[in-house]
Amino acid sequence: MKALETLQRGGIILYPTDTIWGLGCDATNDEAVERLFRLKGRPSSKAMISLVDSIGSLRNWVSNIPEAALREIMVSKRPLTIVYPEVNGISVNLIADDGSAAFRIPQNEFTAELCRRLGHPLVSTSANFAGEPSPSSYDRIPENLKVMVDYTCQTGRGSAEASPSRIIKIDADGSVSVIRE
């Protein structure tokens, strides 16, 4: 799998997620994460989402998964990103000042399998430049961005238009707040 090889050598990929098309790299590779921030023109103070293939994998990166998070994952009908209070092992650029970071378990097999094979979280940020609208389909990704990545996945190019995930934040005490509906 060319996407996996690219990630393993520290590259950046353009790939379809369970939401919109994303830019990604190995979330444990500081150099790749920094490069992705530069490519997007995004300030490093705005953390990015990471994807993992399962709750089991999530436990490797989130110190304490509150029960409220497990409930939300189980009942969510659409893609759900959760900001967890205590994380470890991922690039410091993906962790907010308060020690939290965002993770999602993708609901499409391609992305989940890519995460599984990588064995690390996969950064997932919208395939656009900072401040521009998130593209809802492959055709809406800026052409100059497409040539800046190390590999573009062939899967999912004809997929219907999509929208970003719902984002919630769960604090250490289990309280839930909605960041993006």
How does this model look, in words?
By secondary structure, this protein is α/β, with parallel strands linked by helices. It contains 6 helices and 9 strands. The chain has helices at residues 2-8, 30-40, 55-58, 67-75, 109-118, 143-146, and strands spanning 13-16, 21-24, 49-51, 80-84, 101-104, 122-126, 151-152, 166-170, 176-180. The longest helix is centred in the N-terminal third of the chain and has 11 residues, at 30-40. 40% of the residues are buried. The model has no long low-confidence stretch (mean pLDDT 93).
Distance separating the two termini: 34 Å
Shape: globular
| Overall mean confidence score, pLDDT | 93
Strand order of the largest sheet: 7-1-2-6-3-5-4-8-9
Rg, please?
Answer: 15 Å
Order of helices and strands: HEEHEHHEEHEHEEE
Percent of residues in β-strands: 15-25%
User: In total, how many beta strands?
Assistant: 9
Helical residue percent band: 10-25%
Give the oligomeric state of the chains in this entry, treating copies of one chain as homo and distinct chains as hetero: single chain
Q: Which residues form runs of ≥5 with pLDDT under 50? A: none
Query: Helix count, per DSSP?
Result: 6
Question: What class, by secondary structure content?
Answer: alpha/beta
Major sheet: size, sense and barrel closure?
Answer: 9 strands, mixed
